[in-house]
Amino acid sequence: MKILKSILQFYINSSIHVGLSCFALVQITQMVFHISQQNAVGYFAFWGTVVGYNFVKYEELARAKRLQLQKQLRVIAVFTLGSFIMTGYYFFLLERITQIGAIVFLGLTMLYTLPFFPNRINARNWAGVKIYIVSFCWVGATVFLPLLNAAVTPTISIGILSIQRFILIFVLILIFEIIDLRHDNSNLRTVPQQIGVKNTKILGFALLVFFCGLEFFNIYSNFNIQFLKLKLNLDIAVAIVITLFLVFANEKRAKYYTSFWVESIPIVWLLLLLLLLLFIQ
């Protein structure tokens, strides 16, 4: 049991789980727009997410020399180095325009993490900015990059999907911010700090209703009406699941509530969509 717990902790602490969530959203985008499974984009997103999240989580502590070199952290450091190499490998398999887009989103991640100003303040400490930067970067990695790499012509459907994906990530982060309310610095001015937990949940509910409503206006080319109806039902089901997580979110929840269960939603979403496709074929 202790070994299984250590494996689970490494799986979460090394950002493999969140990397799989990003990979799942890339695959969903490719499936929705009939893009052949260009694994380079998905693998780049996976390894890049592992590197980015580990860098964000551990860089500040390491720079402040508050990070003890525990055994698991040393393993994570080696794993992150290997992930960086894999990210570079798949980067060079992307189309040139996709590489440029990836560099832009990498720049946003660096801005979010590193202090560029004399007072050593980074974007993570800019009041209320974190949730927007993170949401936009996820839209970039899981919507823009796969579509750029496949040279998909911009359409209204892409705009709607981008808004939906932004809302999805935004609401998921709201759950994280509610759970972390006790530990977050008051200067961060997270959404729950500014409007309270109750109003944060109401905001999340309203955004999820909007998320579902957008699906009624979306038109995916070359999809039959049966698929559209099933996909709409799946999107509503995902929104309901997120709503339940939002309802029961509070400051006393264990870390696995968000770091494992909430971050599992995109993975489960992909698995359900795969089953859906099997069902209509």
Report the C-alpha radius of gyration, rounded.
19 Å
Helices and strands, in N-to-C order? Answer: HHHHHHHHHHHH
Quantity of strands, as a count:
0
**Oligomeric state as shown:** single chain
What would you call the structural class? mainly alpha
Number of helical regions: 12
Helix content: over 70%
Percent of residues in beta strands?
Answer: under 5%
Largest sheet: none
Domain module tally: 1
* Outline type: globular
Mean pLDDT: 85
How far is the first residue's CA from the last residue's CA?
Answer: 42 Å
Q: Regions with pLDDT < 50 over 5+ consecutive residues? A: none
Describe the overall structure.
The protein has one domain. The chain is mainly α. Helix content is 73%, strand content 0%. The longest helix is centred in the N-terminal third of the chain and has 25 residues, at 39-63. The protein is built from twelve helices and no strands. The radius of gyration is 19 Å and the shape is globular. It has helices at 2-13, 16-32, 39-63, 71-91, 96-113, 130-149, 156-179, 191-195, 197-215, 225-247, 256-261, 265-280.
What features would you highlight for this structure?
281 residues; 0% strand; mainly alpha
Short description:
The protein is 73% helix and 0% strand. The chain has 281 residues and is an all-alpha fold.
Tell me the layout of helices and strands.
Elements: H1 2-13, H2 16-32, H3 39-63, H4 71-91, H5 96-113, H6 130-149, H7 156-179, H8 191-195, H9 197-215, H10 225-247, H11 256-261, H12 265-280
Helix pairs in contact: 2-3, 2-6, 2-12, 3-4, 3-5, 5-6, 6-7, 7-9, 7-10, 9-10, 10-12
